[in-house]
Amino acid sequence: VDGKDAKLAMAHMYVAFIALLLGGLAGLLQVLVRSGEFTLPLGIKIGYYQVLTVHGILLALILTTFFIMGFQIASISRTAGAFTNVQRKIGWTGFWLMLVGTAAAAAMVLLNKATVLYTFYAPLKAHWIFYLGLALVVVGSWLLCIMQILKYYRWKKENKGQTSPLLTYMAVVNSILWITCSLGVAVEVLFQLLPWSLGLVERVDILLSRTLFWYFGHALVYFWLLPAYMAWYVVVPKVIGGHIFSDALARLSFILFLLFSFPVGIHHQLTEPGIEGFWKFVQVVLTFFVVIPSLMTAFSLFATFEMRGRELGGKGVLGWFKNLPWGDARFLVPFIGMVAFIPGGAGGIVNASYQMNQLVHNTIWVTGHFHLTVATAVALTFFGVAFWLIPHLTGRTLTPKLNYLGNVSGILWGIGMLIMSLSMHLAGLLGAPRRSEYSTYGGAEMAYDWIPYQIAQAVGGTILFIAILVIMYIVVQLIWFAPKGEEEFPVATVAPGAEKTPAILENFKIWGVILVALIVFAYTMPIIDIISNSPAGSKGFMPW
Ligand code: HAS
Questions:
Q1: I need a surface site. Which of 99, 161, 255, 518 has the fewest CB within 10 A?
Q2: How are the residues of the chain apportioned to helix, strand and coil, as percentages rounded to the nearest 5?
Q3: How close is the Cα of 369 to the center of ligand 1, in Å?
């Protein structure tokens, strides 16, 4: 990675890991309080829902966005060459806007003026500075995405007719996905929440705001997932000494994510009145399409692992498995994430199934689902990446001791999450609600059944916090203290014999048209219905 690009990528890493520490601490407080054995303030003056807001925003929004931008910038610089000065200036402007926005939003949450959880749904109302802060984070991230897209097109111009480097292509697809999805939340914040919070309008249409949010919100989860897939497709094969199974398959799966991440948001609103059953059904069916690229990814990963295991002499149906480099944290930590994604993805399919959603919606099952997906599959992959990316950027090396600690942190995370997420799933099936403080609900018998699971969650959550402390130790070492040297940025080549990549996969005009058509198809009628049935006085979404 070019030295100047490395500085920009590292700036993102600092923010991401500070967010991990503070957000993780908030998570620990939460599981302790929910177990019923501890009460806040625990010496500090802060409420449960405030802690929950800090936890969700710092980990789901800030850690992810900053890490992803830093990783993508480094990936493009490594595979397509250094950014130009102008592109880098755009990037730095984006970074500072995101940082100022984060500080503004965080200040409001800490002042208890924005205790609105990470989804900031109306009718929960925050101070206008919180919404302004969020808007700045979004605009800043757009600049960072534009920087990456400009670099891609410059590369294409300078290398006419050639297939772009796979990591660069993947980062660009994710940037396009992010810009397209965050338009939804930008409209919600600028035209509904901000004017409402400023007192310019008295009421806003809640259903419309939630629909705009989930248009953004489900694609958001793939914005988190795709950088993990970048590492799974391109980095992990190199770490194990193997090859990418197929460049074309990897690109196709990214394009499928781009197309099918959008027309599915209503599967988060299956229990909401005001959206016709037909459109819910359409989006449920389309949700099953977005499962396909993940199944393709699973297939491709198994193929890569098997090919490499056999190259190393593995025999029999599963004999190749033990030959993989289990001692290497750059492999083991993301691998634990991959394993977690199997039940995590299966849980997603349960959520998406129209009828079964009635059982699990708004229960702590859903919290269990996203702790396996974003908080294990994605998070562990990001940590596995950080273990080589940070020393690569700071000119240091991952020593055997730090590598060992990396494995310890991954295993601790896996155990902690197994306990916490399993008990969340089980309690959810017994009806325990999500997003709720410890309560026996007036002595309801059912609520007593949930308590053992809540205690198990506290045990799992405590192990997770210990894992975070180990990770923070490793990161601090890798930034300031590990021995100077050169750490590899692993990028695998495509397996010999893989088919040629069809040029159409880089034709973003075609994919753009299909993407817009799918969004228009899935959302036009539901939005027209919502606006035309909007309660008097809420004025749809225009403040005038
Ligand atoms: Fe989800 C709710 C449906 C994937 C995150 N999801 C959430 C929320 C979050 C979230 C944060 O339909 C809560 C939002 C809120 O606050 O309300 N989700 C799905 C479906 C998928 C899915 C169908 N979700 C994700 C991912 C996330 C994420 C990815 C974050 C990164 N989700 C839902 C639905 C809801 C929902 C409903 C709303 C519920 C409600 O009622 O509120 C699919 O994309 C999943 C497909 C994945 C697979 C797994 C493939 C496996 C792979 C690993 C291979 C492993 C290897 C290792 C090679 C089919 C790729 C092998 C080794 C061995 C040893 C075996």
A1: 161
A2: 75, 0, 25
A3: 7
Contact by Cβ (8 Å): 62, 19:
yes
Closest of 387, 239, 256 to residue 304, by C-alpha:
239
Written as one letter, the residue type at 416 is: G
**What is the C-alpha radius of gyration for the chain, rounded to an integer number of angstroms?**
23
Atom of ligand 1 nearest to the CA of 297: 60
Secondary structure of residue 211 in the 3-state scheme = helix
Give the separation between CA 356 and CA 349, rounded to whole angstroms: 9
Helix (H, G, I), strand (E, B) or coil at 60: helix
**What does the DSSP 8-state code read for residue 507?**
-
Return the pLDDT at 544: 41
Lookup: tokens for 33 = 């309080």
Q: How far is the CA of 347 from the centre of ligand 1 (A)?
A: 7
Amino acid identity of residue 353, one-letter, is: S
Cβ distance 340 to 380 under 8 Å? yes
d(CA 247, CA 252): 9
Which of 154, 203, 310, 435 is the catalytic position? 435
Q: Is 228 in the pocket of ligand 1 (CB under 6 A)?
A: no
Interatomic CA distance for residues 235 and 165, integer angstroms: 13
Phi then psi for residue 363, to 5 deg, are -100, 170
Residue of 76, 59, 66, 68 whose CA lies nearest to 97: 66
Instruction: Residue 380: name the closest of 321, 464, 312, 271 by CA.
Output: 464
> To 5 degrees, how large is the angle CA 193–CA 12–CA 257?
65
Instruction: Choose which residue among 213, 373, 374, 436 to substitute to test ligand 1 binding: the one with the highest number of ligand atoms within 8 A of its C-beta.
Output: 373
ipTM above 0.95, yes or no: yes
Ligand 1 pocket, 210 CB below 6 A? no
User: How many other C-beta atoms are found inside a 10 Å radius of the C-beta of residue 298?
Assistant: 15
* Structural domains for the chain: 3-437+444-532 (1.20.210.10)
Reported as a single tens digit per residue, the pLDDT across 469-484 is 999 999 999 999 999 9
SS3 42: coil
Average pLDDT rounded to a whole number, residues 35-41: 74
Report the C-alpha gap between 540 and 530 in whole angstroms. 8
Contact 12, 67 (CB under 8 A): yes
> Which atom of ligand 1 is nearest to 60's Cα?
11
User: Which bin fits 106, alpha (ψ -120 to 50), beta or left (φ > 0)?
Assistant: alpha
β-bridge partners, 433? 363
Q: Is the pLDDT of residue 44 over 70?
A: no
- Residue for token digits 């900053």? 66
